[in-house]
Amino acid sequence: MKRNLYDYAREQLSALLVLEGQKPYRATQLFKWIYQKNITDFSLMSDIAQNYREHLADNFCLTLPKIATMQKSADGTIKLLLELEDGAKIETVLMRYNYGNVACVSSQVGCNMGCKFCASGLLKKKRNLTPSEMTGQVLVLNQLLLLEEVPGRVSHVVVMGTGEPFDNYDHVMTFIQTINDPHALAIGARHITVSTCGIPDKIRLYGQSGLQINLAISLHAPNDEIRNQIMPINQAYPLKDLMAAVQDYEKNAGRRVTFEYILLSGINDQEEHADQLAKLIRPTFAYVNLIPYNEVDEHGFKRSNDRAVSKFFSRLKKRGVNVTIRREFGSDIDAACGQLRAKEDAKK
Ligand code: SAH
Known about the structure:
Elements lengths: L2 E2 L5 H10 L5 H12 L13 H10 E2 L4 E7 L5 E6 L5 E9 L2 E5 L3 E2 L17 E2 L2 H16 L9 E4 L9 H12 L11 E5 L3 H8 L6 E5 L5 H7 L2 H4 L2 H15 L4 E6 L7 H11 L5 E6 L13 H13 L3 E4 L13 H9 L1
Parallel strand pairs: 1-2, 6-9, 9-10, 10-11, 11-12, 12-13, 13-14
Antiparallel strand pairs: 3-4, 4-5, 5-6, 7-8
Helix pairs in contact: 1-2, 4-5, 6-9, 10-11
The structure holds S-adenosyl-L-homocysteine (SAH).
S-adenosyl-L-homocysteine (SAH) binds next to β10 and β12.
């Protein structure tokens, strides 16, 4: 079977091609064609010897996910259901902020973390995504953006789609290397965010990677009692372990994390919870991003009303926490993680 060129970071590809007797710069040349000139026909790669172009065409492919469904929101948000080579379907979202085009990328087919409020977990993990399937999500969005009246490109990436990225660590890191590579998509490290439900050893490893990439932690609870109820991962790694890993990360990476906190009515949105949260995260000096909950029919949780959100926000501010409220996109389409997929499945 042909290997997908989009699966390799440049150093990996270079090592592979050197084994075939090529010069190390061959990988850089290829990257320029496939990522910067969008050429996928090997015969057009004019600075590569004719017989080697043929060899490449015989041994490599440049397969991208196919668009199965596309939803466009009035605010410009695009939500794609993509079909992979084995027929698996994944979601990818493009959000338009004033500072750029943000792609929300999935990292697995389904997810095993079982968070009680999340639509993605309605389907158990089937498999990890390959690096090419993650890079492919960005490339497909870039193709759509190129066709717009004012051609654009993905400028920011958040790994916040379906899946737990730290349960697919190596592939996610290869993907990040490629999108960050100046010879590939050249998306700046500070424009890339990985979001995890909190796996301590991977948080530490990520801190040692030397990459200046943002890390977001899905916290969603101010104490173990509540977190155990809504996020099963907390039973394996309670808050004490998670916070220790976050502090190690911050020391090694020299960067602060962002804690994501979904406000669920009557569950974690009381002022006492804000007080506990402020105390819990004080040693980390981290940011908090409050997330309006997208209700998922199957789960029965309700979003906190505006009054509860602003009270929670003010309480955190008063306690010196650096807090923001996440803007919402695509509320007229199936915006919650995994909602579009879950609906497709229900139709079957
Ligand atoms: N597994 C990773 C990344 C995917 S989830 C993680 O846990 O961070 C991305 C973010 O969306 C997480 O913070 C998750 O808790 C949140 N999320 C899941 N379902 C949601 C919903 N229905 N409404 C709002 N946010 C949701």
